[in-house]
Amino acid sequence: MSTGNSSADVVIVGGGPAGRALATRCIARQLAVVIVDPHPRRVWTPTYSAWADELPSWLPDEVIASRIQRPSVWAEEQKTLDRAYCVLNTSSLQLFLSDTSAQFRALTARTLSPNSVVCTDGTQLTGSVVVDARGTDLTVTTAQQTAFGVIVDRALTAPILGGGEAWFMDWRRDNGTSDADTPSFLYAVPLDDERVLLEETCLVGRPALGLRELEARLRTRLHNRGCEVPEDAPVERVRFAVEGPKDSSPGDVLRFGGRGGLMHPGTGYSVACSLAEADAVAEAIADGGDPEAALWPRSAKGVAALRRVGLNALLTLDPAEVATFFDRFFDLPVEAQRSYLSDRRDAAATAKVMATLFRTSPWHVRKTLMRAPFLR
Fold this sequence. Notes:
Strand content: 15-25%
Keywords: Carotenoid biosynthesis, NAD
Number of helices: 11
Radius of gyration: 21 Å
Number of domains: 3
Protein name: Lycopene cyclase family protein
InterPro entries: FAD/NAD-bd_sf (IPR036188), Lycopene_cyclase_b/e (IPR010108)
Family: Belongs to the lycopene cyclase family.
Organism: Rhodococcus baikonurensis
Helix content: 25-40%
CATH architecture of the largest domain: 3-Layer(bba) Sandwich
Order of helices and strands: EHEEEEEEHEEEEEHEEEHEEHHHHHHH
């Protein structure tokens, strides 16, 4: 690691997937990059997944650990989705995004401005562009997603998968809950040819369900389906905010990744979007343009506003309405699903999906959806 002050074309604060993806695409355009991260050698452990059509062409196939051609969902009944879904190989992704000429600085940023970063030890780093890619912050007021999962041998999961490839969402109530309880769903995906992640997930809450509650629900669900998990099975614990900071960027510092609003607030997905948007931002920086404008054209701002309404709807749905809501959503054509889940630059398409979902929902769900635009 280097010491002392330094300068570069781009200084990126935050060395997670979003920050390193942007660094990779900047370096591909011969830009000098410094990444500021207090723990640059920390091994990534989360499971990252994406719809296959979201991933950019520059990402090698080696970072895909498993590909599910037709995942299943169960809301009010089982449905099979005609859209390929991928689980990424986290270690391969980290290695690929770290195999660059970026200069890593094991420092903690204290203050950021559009062209400089001052670290807690007094080190100052300057750049033509400073990017804040430190992810979202957990606070008592931010909506969060939580999950508790176990990783088991594929041979044990036959009674869970029921002959399907994976459960993208399984909202059935065999996890020991009633219609009056805050719902959670089973997420069950193969990590590779030998292992499967079985995870009880609270999609979003303010506050979200606690990990102990999710663990209890998962173990109840698996027991009820005849899957006994070994005591030494690896576990995964998940808690993160699905909303970025509500304040404006300090001094108009460019934000990217989850911190920059690229997380879908209704799903918690951000890595694929960050990978896909890295080229547009890097190109704008290399060409001397406005990276903020490249990342946030008017249509993208419109989609973000509509997604916030969708988040409000999820937060206010009665527990008994959640399965109905998702049953109607996954009844939509796959192109409509893709528009809402993945397309952040077509506000008209997003609005059309939301209008269709409203029109096809039962009246008791519509009443909740009508309140969503007015919530904060």
